[in-house]
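Hello Y.,

Per our agreement to keep a running log of every chain we model this quarter, I'm adding this entry. I've kept the format consistent with earlier entries: sequence first, then predicted structure.
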Amino acid sequence: MPYVTRPTAPVIGWEYVYLIRMGGSHKIGRCKSWERRRKAFSGLPAKITLLCLLRTQRSAELEAALHAKYAPKRLNGEWFALAESDVEEIRASPLRVR
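Predicted structure for the entry above:
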């Protein structure tokens, strides 16, 4: 998959693509700071679980690629009904930091 390539040199400007679960739904999103984004989720009506955090300089492209790949499983916006095998596939990315 082209969106899982790792940069060859250290660079400035890392961003993140995250996968969270809330109830039976999964959100694929992106952010510059996971800690700030996590705090923004504190107002949601249900508990969220971080399943995967990917570090990249091309978060918009990676997020768009994941959204396109899982489009048939889209519930609404950035929310998907992913199978456990889908989650494991995303978690297997070499960009994973958490």
